[in-house]
Every structure is written in structure tokens, then in C-alpha cells.
């Protein structure tokens, strides 16, 4: 009998924890949204993940973003090198600021 009460107490503590964290409200809202869908989705788990914001980026999206990041990093390095070159060329044609103030 004592074992039954101990597990009930743990369950009640866990339920209060979920309620306090807002998990119960979130799950309830998602399940209500699924219930109210006129056309039920083929994959209910994907529906729940999507509505909870759990679904990560699609694999194609991730690969596209990786490629874009690589391209942008290359462009950045090129622009840094060009900027350095242009600054050096500009310094050749501009008099030093000390001479300009005299």
C-alpha cells in the first residue's frame, strides 16, 4: 500500500511540474487544433511537431544555407583582400595627414 502512495505522489509532483512549466497547456492547445482540423493530416506527429515549433529545418534548406554560407564567406574574404589593396593604393597617392595639416 505504501508503494502505491509513493508512486501516486511522484505522479502528482510530475503533473504539477508539467502544469507549472506550461507543457500541459501547450499540448492541450495542439491537440485541440488537431481535433478541430477538418482534414486530418496524414502524419499527426508531424502536425504536433510543427505546431510546437519542434520541427527542424528541412534537409534541403540546411544544405542550401550551408552552400550560401560558404559562398558568402568566400566573398567576404575577397572583399577584405580588395579593401586592403585599395587602402594601400590610396595611401600611395594621398599625402600623409601630417603634411596636410602643416
Automatic annotation (TrEMBL):
Assigned keywords, A-Z: Coiled coil, Nucleus
Gene3D superfamilies reported in the protein's UniProt record: 6.10.250.1060
InterPro entries tied to this protein: AMY1 (IPR026060)
Ranges in coiled-coil conformation: 62-89
Highest taxon in the source lineage: Eukaryota
Any single Gene Ontology cellular-component annotation: nucleus
Keyword Nucleus assigned: yes
GO molecular function, one term: transcription coactivator activity
Location in the cell: Nucleus
Keyword Transmembrane appears in the UniProt entry: no
Similarity comment: Belongs to the AMY1 family.
Protein name: c-Myc-binding protein
Species for this entry: Phoxinus phoxinus (Eurasian minnow)
